[in-house]
Amino acid sequence: MAPAEAQGSETQPGGNDEGMIETWLRKHRLLYIGATRHPFILSIRDGIVDFSSFKRWLGQDYIFVRAFVPFVAGLLLKAWRESDDQSDIEVILGGLAALNDEIAWFKKEALKWDVQLSSIAPQKSNQDYCRLLESLTDPAVEYAEAMTAFWAIEAVYQQSFGHCLEDGCRTPPELGEACQRWGNQGFEQYCSSLRKIANRCLHKASDDVRRRAEVTLLHVLQQEVAFWNMSCGDEEA
Fold first, then answer.
1. What digits encode the pLDDT tens for the residues 195-229?
2. Positive or negative CA dihedral for 221, 125, 103, 99?
3. Dihedrals φ, ψ of 18, to 5°?
4. CA–CA separation, 202 vs 148, rounded Å?
5. Under a CB-based contact definition with an 8 Å cutoff, are residues 44 and 221 in contact?
6. In the chain, what's the furthest Cα-to-Cα distance?
7. Are 109 and 75 in contact (CB under 8 A)?
8. pLDDT of residue 17
């Protein structure tokens, strides 16, 4: 799938290694583009972002990341119980360990931008997204479905912020570190590893699990769009 202007392994499906992820991304191409080329991201890339929107995103995403931690921990448990390849555990564990550094980064950025994290309440889109994460920790949710969500959440950020690092972009220097955090090649490779795991699990999953995983993928993409909208101020607190 993926937008023609995007670059990197996450947007180069096709060929002999194509799996369910690539099939779904072609099928839902417009929604994927909406999540990875949102006006908020384009405003960063074009150097016209309203810094108040970035600060709003910063505070709300800090809340989201804290809710993301138990989701990834739950995914690690699912991998231990259900995966047919124990190397999955190492991949997921690497992502979980990185979240500690990520939370520290949000705190550091909040100080720089004078964002009072302790006084920020989650907005509706954030609450909805966090509820989705919590629902995916349910033991009844299959590993393949939860892994699909994990890949999608990470890949949207990698593709979005990676777009702000491409040649010709006018990303403000103040936001360069944020874009590098999720747009770097190392994180792109990590997302590629997650995609391969998700495709392997989906290949072996039942039709019912695949249907649920596709629905979950759509929910994640919709929530990502709503989160970007919220960052732009298109939502009441």
1. 999 999 999 999 999 999 999 999 999 999 999 99
2. negative
3. -65, 140
4. 8
5. no
6. 50
7. no
8. 59
**Contact between 208 and 106 (Cβ < 8 Å):** no
* Residue 77 burial (10 A CB sphere; 0-12, 13-18, 19+): middle
Instruction: Say yes or no to pLDDT of 236 above 50.
Output: no
Q: Which two tokens stand for residue 169?
A: 């972009």
pTM of the model: 0.91
Which member of 22, 102, 214, 224 is catalytic?
224
Q: What six digits make up the tokens of 157?
A: 């950020």
How far is Cα 93 from Cα 105, in angstroms, rounded to an integer? 19
DSSP, res 174: G
Tokens 């989701």 belong to: 71
Express each pLDDT in 134-179 by its tens digit.
999 999 999 999 999 999 999 999 999 999 999 999 999 999 999 9
Beta strands in the chain (DSSP E): none
224 is catalytic: yes
Report residue 194 CA to chain centroid gap: 11
